[in-house]
Amino acid sequence: MANLIYVANTSLDGYTEDPDGKFDWTEPGEEYFRFITDLVRPMRTHLYGRRMYETMMVWETDLNLAAESPLMRDFAETWKAAHKIVFSKTLETVSTRNTQLERSFDPGAIRQLKQTVQEDILIGGPELAAHAFRSGLIDECHLFIIPIIVGGGKQALPGNVRLALELVDERRFDNGVVFLRYRTNQARAA
User: Fold this and answer.
1) What domain range includes position 96?
2) If 178 and its partner were Cys, which of 22, 142, 145, 189 is the partner (CB 3.0–4.6 Å)?
3) What number of CA atoms fall less than 13 Å from residue 51's CA on the CB side?
4) What is the pLDDT of residues 106-144, one digit of tens each?
5) Total count of domains within the chain
6) Is the pLDDT reported for residue 26 higher than 70?
7) Which CATH number does the domain housing residue 11 bear?
8) 19 and 150 in contact (C-beta within 8 Å)?
């Protein structure tokens, strides 16, 4: 059975975006970029909300981005190869290959997906992840703590959820970013 893994960049004070909706402070260094590419490469299915999908789709739609460096080309190829499921009530169509559009988040369908695929599943975007957290679906959290305090914005982790976590791995990068990998208590019980 596949694990559902929430992957997020977050400020030290727990936000994925600042109060203005900006996340330019998450620009990865080379070591960190290589690590995250290798981390997501085996996750062959990605779940996104509309906003996260629109942010990530540039890895397929902006050919200049992949041409900037071998690291960026590697990430672009990794992202394009993954099957993507976008959950949105407002998005009319998707503009990338290997992408399907779903109108609502169905916990039962995600449980079925976890039982059907072999590789772990990435879930990106704090709003979509909040639904999965509240449904008891998240097996691991992979958090990249950026050394900045932004003072507000979009929370990386949902409110009104209590969940025990077990630290499984940690790593410090040369740019001060810290990676924390946690397993959830529901994953330990499975």
Assistant:
1) 4-189
2) 145
3) 11
4) 999 999 999 999 999 999 999 999 999 999 999 999 999
5) 1
6) yes
7) 3.40.430.10
8) yes
